[in-house]
Amino acid sequence: MNSNAKLLLEKYKAGTCTAEEIALLESWYIKEAAARNISVSEINIDKITDLRLTELEPDIAVVKTMPRVRYIKIWQVAASIALTVCVSFLAYHYLGAFDNDHVHPKYVVNQTPKGTIHKIVLPDGSTVWLNAGSLLKYPKTFEGKVRKVELVDGQVFFDIKHMDGHPFVVKTSNLNITVLGTSFDVKAYKNEKITKVSVLTGKVGISVQGQVNKPVIMLLPSQQVVLNNVTDHIVKGTAKAVAIESWRSNVLVFDDEDLNLVFKALERKYNTKINVEDNGLLDQHISIKLNAQPLTNILDVLSFTKHFKYEMPNDSTVIIKK
Amino acid sequence: MLPLELADFTDEELLKEVQAGNRRAFELIYNRYKGVLYIHAYKMLRDEDEAKDVVQELFTKLYSKAGIIFVRTTLSAYLYASVRNRILDIIAHKRIKTDYLVSLEDFVRQGAYTTDQLVREKELAFQIEKEVSLLPEKMRQIFEMSRNANLSHKEIAAKLDISDKTVKKQISNAIKLIKVKLHLYGISTAIVCLLDAFFKDK
After folding, report:
1. Contact A9 B72 (CB under 8 A)
2. How does DSSP classify residue B96?
């Protein structure tokens, strides 16, 4: 009876919900919170005043049992340094014990805030670039036959080292991308309707999750697939090399993309919120190359070519008008 | 009127201090939020021990992960989302007796929801913060004063007619300057804090 609800909650925890499902669940939660009343007589004040950082107590204990050195100032400083080392050491061990991920940290989670691009080297020597607002999860060391990483959110460019017999697999919420040694880009922002895989060099195999029996789609350089996350409709096409890789050097290249995606990319890169009053504008397509420059310059160019007006009431808001 | 006391720091400034290893800053964050988070958890779960565990586990994790936590908007939004996710987890695993799953099932069937993520974030904050009046007097004051600290940057900016970011920058410059001066005397911030704790009970 409640299996759908339970499944939704589990997907939410696993981070595999669609944007619509997230909105649904979070809206429901707010409704439940609003519907529940509580009065002061129901609250056990003792419980609140009892709330202490108990799990962190080990380092407080250390502070109290330290020998008291009072006479020579330098001793006190030395003791403090020893204490710092001691506390850090204990904190590392004790705190870790309350968090399973920390006892034996098997995975690294790399997250980029808006407006920044991270370049990281994976344990196998492969290099990846995380675009703004991305989250990539990968093991501390690759074990077993398959090198597997998970793109939870965002856009990542992969430059993968070839290792005989050890394919490299990127998992997104709806695709499995398998390669041997190649460079390619995966764009899977949760707040966008499409997942896009574009190949720069080498050969890439793609399978849609949950469709095991369907043949793997093979991609060659300058080819890409676009998967509609809502309908699961998949389209194979071509992509220009410059449009695949240039974001790594802070250059945004759009090759016949709709303005909706352009604005989303600008929001992430400039850490701003773009409100569009005329939705008709969002479907218009544009091909443009935008070098690193102030947001106002870019908006000037876009508003001129696409005939709209814009306002910036503050540093973090743009309003697009007809 | 620069906030030189930790207690006057905004949540985000405190989080930066925590990331730099300042334990006291973490306690301040804890004292600001434990009350509202507990009441919210209790209201949703109706189980005192579960509610207490939710809050304590949440902060234990925050402390151990402070270095890698990325706060997208505000620390409060992060904490509220975290407490919600923990409660959802408890609901999913039916650790409490409620009719939540039935209610969720109905809600999914109706299919009406708020698409704007920022609106949802604000509504959640409103739902959690509206219970602040139920807190014990002193805890309520701490929470409300922290709201003022978060507001004050904007107020200073409004009075001086400069942008909020400029004010924050000047404040953080002032803090940096103080740290540099401390270092000139050979005192690292961590050691200052520890010395402080070391001699407190004398």
Report:
1. no
2. S
HEC string of A74-125? HHHHHHHHHHHHHHHHHHHHHHHCCCHHHHCCCEEEEECCCCCCEEEECCCC
What residue spans define the domains of chain B? 6-147
Residue of A nearest to B116 (CA): A23
A contacts of B117 (beta carbons < 8 Å): 23, 191
Give pLDDT tens digits for B111-151: 788 888 888 999 999 999 998 988 888 888 888 888 777 66
Contact B25, B5 (CB under 8 A): no
Best residue of B53, B101, B162 to probe chain A, by most A CBs closer than 10 Å: B101
The 3-class secondary structure across chain B, one letter per residue, is CCCCCHHHCCHHHHHHHHHCCCHHHHHHHHHHHHHHHHHHHHHHHCCHHHHHHHHHHHHHHHHHHHHHCCCCCCHHHHHHHHHHHHHHHHHHCCCCCCCHHHHHHHHHHHCCCCCCHHHHHHHHHHHHHHHHHHCCHHHHHHHHHHHHHHHHHHHHHHHHCCCHHHHHHHHHHHHHHHHHHHHHCCCCHHHHHHHHHHHCCC
- Give the SS3 label for residue B64: helix
- For chain A, give every domain's residue range: 3-35, 48-100, 107-245, 250-321
Q: What is the pLDDT of residues A114-136, one digit of tens each?
A: 888 888 899 999 999 999 889 99
On whether the A107-245 domain is CATH 1.10.443.10, my answer is no
Whole-prediction pTM: 0.44
Identify the residue whose tokens are 């919420």. Answer: A173
* Distance, CA of A302 to CA of A287 (rounded, Å): 11
State in words which class domain A250-321 has. Answer: alpha beta
pLDDT at A246: 87
